[in-house]
Design a protein that fits this description.
mainly beta; Neuraminidase; 4-stranded antiparallel sheet; 26 strands
Length: 303
């Protein structure tokens, strides 16, 4: 009887170990010379041909070409590595630049840089009221003091998608220029890491102390995905995030997880590394991430 029970338990465990959400072709360590400015991957181009790196404090941006293996310094601006976005054609990067005045007040400007020429222009002058920055195609949209501004970086401006933004650990949803509080889990919790699904029908976010959630853009249909930090959309039905543990001082382990909205999950990285902060390209076939030691990796997926 004990033997039969053991077999049943083992059979019940097998689906969890072989569950496949995505097909991993390879995991490659990127040969990037380590420096203060190349410690952390902060973005990957939509076509997956380059990654952007920054320092632990988000100072500066360095482009690393995944084909030529060459790196180019784009900017040394403070805060440039936070919320960095790349246009759909990969030709422009939109970033923040933080400055502190004589009264120790922090201001944030929004700038864009042409990746090929390194020509930089200002989209939003230094302000203390920046609420959101969103890039769709070659159009950059900013919200400052509840005022929305749209600018085409190349060609003509495309239609503005809904924008999910965060301010003081609250979420706000902007549709057709109108911004409202977005609080599917209530107003007494802290929201972080929010993003819209590629088809803009759902919102992905993390609630501190509770876990990762997905819901409809109207706030209904709440789905709980558990501990999945720094989540990113891979497809409209699959998200990728990290499941990390710490000792109160530093991270002791972290693996990347791909999980469907139905709850099926797959571990993408092993216990031989501390994989953190995944970044998914728009084509959905590459995931870039970093380790606390400053190593950067690229996961190639079979589409």
């Amino acid at each position: 009887m004990k033997k039969i029970l053991s077999i049943v338990i083992l059979m019940g465990f097998v689906p969890m170990t072989i569950a496949q959400v995505v097909q991993v072709k390879s995991i490659e360590r990127l040969d990037i010379p380590l420096s203060e400015e190349t410690v952390e991957v902060v973005a990957i181009a939509p076509q997956g041909d380059y990654v952007l790196l920054s320092s632990p404090s988000h100072r500066g941006l360095v482009k690393f070409d995944l084909t030529t293996k060459r790196q180019t310094v784009l900017t040394d601006a403070e805060g440039a590595g936070y919320g960095t976005q790349i246009t759909g054609d990969g030709k422009n990067v939109v970033f923040r630049e933080k400055t502190i005045n004589d009264e120790r007040l922090t201001f944030t400007a929004v700038k864009q840089i042409d990746v090929a020429t390194k020509q930089t222009s200002t989209l939003v002058a230094p302000t203390r009221d920046l609420q959101a920055v969103a890039v769709e195609g070659s159009t950059a949209t900013t919200i400052t003091g509840k005022r929305m501004n749209t600018r085409a970086l190349r060609g003509t401006a495309s239609a503005v998608r809904p924008i999910i933004s965060s301010e003081d650990l609250h979420l706000y949803l902007t549709i057709n220029g109108e911004t409202t509080l977005f609080a599917p889990n209530g107003t007494d919790v802290n929201y972080i890491w929010a993003s819209l699904s590629p088809d803009t029908r759902r919102v992905l976010y993390y609630v501190s102390g509770m876990g990762c959630f997905v819901c409809g853009i109207d706030g209904t249909g709440l789905i709980e995905l558990g501990t999945l930090r720094a989540p990113q959309w891979l497809t409209n039905d699959v998200v990728v995030g990290m499941r990390d543990e710490d000792n109160g001082v530093y991270v002791t382990s972290s693996t990347l997880i791909a999980k469907t909205l139905a709850g099926v999950e797959q571990v993408l990285t092993g216990s031989d590394m501390i994989a953190m902060y995944p970044h998914v390209n728009a084509d959905g076939d590459k995931i870039a991430f970093s380790t606390p030691q400053g190593d950067s990796y690229l996961i190639q997926l079979q589409k």
